[in-house]
Amino acid sequence: MSESRREFWNGVRAEFPLLIGVFPFGMIYGALALDAGLSALASQMMSSIVFAGSSQFITAQLVKDAAPGFVVVVTIAVVNLRHMLYSASLAPYLKHLSLQWKVLLSYLLTDEAYAPSILKYEAEGTKPFSHWFLLGAGFSLWSTWQVSTALGVFLGAEIPDDLPLDFALPITFIAMVVPVLKKMPMVAAALSAGLTALLAIHLPFKLGLILAAFVGIVVGTLLDNLKPQQGSA
Question: Taking the model in full, what pTM does it have?
């Protein structure tokens, strides 16, 4: 097996535990998109083109509420700002790649693909074929999202309302975040961001998510900058 193929399948295997939580989330989206008035084709195409679960859920709700197109686009942009942080974090490990590779990997970059990839890159650094790991993680998630959306669209209203599928996403994100929290500034950033998100949950257009990310960044940066000063005192 070539090194590129080996790294690809390593990415798929690292992503697999997260796919278990993503699958029911995609089914819920498919059903909600139909309920919001989107056609089956539009619902599926959104998963293929937008490929961002939280934005797709918000879009379905805004479409159901007959929100203006401008509001829908701006809201999606705000919610997906976190991907800029992911990109900045991965940039040092992928800067040597061609433009074609960067475009492809940026399309496949999601919360779930970022988590195992950054852990691998921080531990091993940059290797000639390490970007294939992110490709494997991202592609396996993309494929799962397409299939789960299609099932949600196909089943539609047949999915029982009391079926507890929505618990899968929080568990998935917890599984992604916990392995990364290795230092106190990281723990403080996660806790402060989580608390802020809870307190700001009622802000319009999901602005609480952006505020929580900002608070987490500020807290983590401040504590990380304080450590050298404390050590030199």
Answer: 0.72
CA gap 42, 38 in Å, rounded: 6
pLDDT for residue 144: 93
Rounded to whole angstroms, how far apart are CA atoms 89 and 116? Answer: 13
Exposure string for 214-231, b = 16+ CB within 10 A, e = fewer:
ebbeebbeebeeeeeeee
The closest alpha carbon to 146, from 233, 36, 49, belongs to 49
Question: Please, which residues have CB within 8 angstroms of residue 35's CB and are 6 or more apart in sequence?
Answer: 60, 64, 156, 157
Please report which confidence band the pLDDT of residue 58 belongs to, taking 50, 70 and 90 as the band edges: confident
Distance CA 16, CA 170 (A): 16
Backbone angles phi and psi of 161, in degrees to 5:
-65, -30
Measure the CA–CA gap between 30 and 28, rounded to whole angstroms.
5
